[in-house]
Amino acid sequence: MSAEELLDEARRALTRVEPHGLADLSDVLVVDIRPHHDRAAEGEVPGSIPVERIVLEWRLDPTGTHRITGFTADTTVVVLCNEGYASSLAARDLQRVGLPNATDLIGGFRAYAAAGLPVRPGATQAVT
Question: Average pLDDT over the chain, rounded to whole?
Fold first, then answer.
């Protein structure tokens, strides 16, 4: 299966969020999987939590012993990356570990910022 086919398959399982729709969500956890250098250069979505992609499933497994606090299995988790590709695959993986409402941000952080939405200076220390 090609990378494009993997991406298409992942997105079929997601109800993706438009940048302007992010503020309309309740009980939401916004997870930023971009590298530190991107967050430092471009900023971050206010209220988002940076989580290193390498530990994402462990930190967001709703029943895991290494999970972060502040969410449940019913929480909508919106993952964002630079442009909305890696985040689709990550959201699919979060659905597989027990977060059925996991999804991603269409166009990623760059579409969010280009839409003129609020951005805070980066880079917050990521959850590792």
Answer: 96
Say which DSSP state 104 is in: E
CA-nearest of 38, 14, 35, 1 to 91 is: 14
Given a contact cutoff of 8 angstroms between Cβ atoms, the answer to whether 38 and 86 are in contact is no
pLDDT digits (tens, 9 = 90+) for 6-22: 999 999 999 999 999 99
Q: What is the 3 state secondary structure string of 4-29? A: HHHHHHHHHCCCCECHHHHHHCCCEE
What is the band of 123 on the pLDDT scale with cuts at 50, 70, 90?
confident
How far lies 56's CA from each of 5, 12, 92, 114, 120, in Å? Answer: 22, 21, 12, 26, 22
φ, ψ dihedrals at 18, nearest 5°: -75, 150
Mapped onto helix, strand or coil, the DSSP state of residue 109 is helix
Question: What element of type H or E holds 76?
Answer: strand 76-80
| pTM for the model | 0.95
